[in-house]
Amino acid sequence: MIIVGGGAEDMKSDGVNVHNVVSRIAKSMNGTIVSSPGVFKGFTTKKDLNVINFGLEDVTHRLLDENWTGFDGKGTYDIIVFIGGLYYFQSMMLSTLKHFNPKMKTISIDRYYHPNATFSLENLSIDKWKNGLEGMLKVLEAK
Predict the structure, then answer these.
(1) What is the mean pLDDT of residues 112-120?
(2) Beta strands in the chain (DSSP E)
(3) Which residues fall within 8 angstroms of residue 68, CB to CB, at 6 or more apart?
(4) CA gyration radius for the chain?
(5) Which of 40, 68, 73, 117: disulfide with 35, CB 3.0–4.6 Å?
(6) Domain coordinates of the chain in residue numbers?
(7) What is the pLDDT of residues 42-99, one digit of tens each?
(8) How far apart are CA 135 and CA 128, in angstroms?
(9) Residue 34 — φ and ψ, nearest 5°?
(10) How far, in Å, CA of 62 to CA of 98, rounded?
């Protein structure tokens, strides 16, 4: 699952179209995108994607529920990728998942370090972050 937060719109000023980046990741992983309501509209023009318009607090609570079968009914998710969240809000979501669902792996691909994620990028300049995202996308799409 890929969780896209409300800060994704602000990334346009950094020269990153998060909707395109997330769409490419989702297609390469056959993943579900959960988008906060403020960012959802940007995904409506994308084809062949499973995009859910859902509040991020609610999806965090669902990820803690052992009986939740996911948006696709196939069970809980093993890996959650985060991008575009407001830093302080995403930090609380990651901390909640770390402490109350420690089996779940969380990955932050924002340009700022998140200590509560299983894996996080370090604090990066905009150029290093954009180059890193593009490199990651090339690897994912090559398979």
Answers:
(1) 97
(2) 2-4, 32-35, 50-53, 79-83, 105-108, 119-120
(3) 62, 76
(4) 14
(5) 40
(6) 2-142
(7) 999 888 899 999 999 999 999 999 899 999 999 889 999 999 999 999 999 999 999 9
(8) 10
(9) -110, 115
(10) 14
User: What's the token pair of residue 141?
Assistant: 């799409």
For the four alpha carbons of 134, 27, 9 and 63, in that order, the dihedral sign comes to negative
The vertex-58 CA angle with 92 and 130, nearest 5°, equals 55
Backbone angles phi, psi at 138, to 5 degrees: -65, -40
For 8-56, write each residue's pLDDT tens digit. Answer: 988 888 888 999 999 999 999 999 999 999 999 999 988 889 999 999 9
Angle at 41 between CA 35 and CA 44, to 5 degrees: 95
